[in-house]
Amino acid sequence: MRIMTVCLGNICRSPAAEAVLARRLEEAGLTDVTVTSAGTADYHVGSQPHPVSREEGEGRGYTFTSVALQLAADHFDEVDLVVVMDASNEADVLALARTPQDAAKVVRLGAFASDADAAVRDVPDPWGMPREAYVRMYDQIEDAVDGLVRAIQDGTVEDVLAAQRALRG
After folding, report:
1. pLDDT given at position 118
2. Can you give the residue ranges of the Phosphotyrosine protein phosphatase I domain (predicted)?
3. Fewer CB within 10 Å, N side or C side of the chain?
């Protein structure tokens, strides 16, 4: 399985989710799953993750290997799952989807959270906010990533995607 995490600028939330997911997948022994990240905008292409996001993540034991990339329609050909951080990212990514098959790959990370229900919670963008916003972001990402890894392990990822597609209409 190939997963891409996506936020707006690809310097705060999506590289954090990429780093958390990469470590959790490794810990779970899921070596056949890869993860990358991208942003819907081109604001930070080529940049390292935001310093506060990186510091908080490294303090939690995560490593960062990617630089900011802008999502393009052809990325759908390279991944099996596009995990977005919020409803705005979801709308932007769905606008790039060329086919119903592309759109079917898109899901919000919050759909895998321990408190997920019909109203999926977004991962708020911490950019420009105090450090505490980054702490909350990581807490939320870690919880949802744990749910995503469990869904991969027990084969229920498609069930979560189907439920989210039904909510989108």
Report:
1. 62
2. 1-151
3. C
Cβ–Cβ under 8 Å, residues 87 and 122: yes
Q: How far is CA 133 from CA 128, 130, 137, in A?
A: 9, 6, 6
DSSP 5: E
Q: Which residue segment(s) compose the domain that 70 sits in?
A: 2-168
Model confidence pLDDT, tens digit, residues 30-50: 999 999 999 999 999 999 999
* Residue partners of 113: CB distance under 8 A and separation at least 6: 120, 121, 140, 143, 144, 147
Query: Which CATH number fits the domain that encloses residue 164?
Result: 3.40.50.2300
Share of the chain above pLDDT 70, in %: 99
Cα dist from 10 to 61, 84, 125, 141, whole Å: 20, 11, 11, 15
User: Which residues are catalytic, by number?
Assistant: 7, 13, 125
- Given the structure tokens 């977004």, which residue do they identify? 122
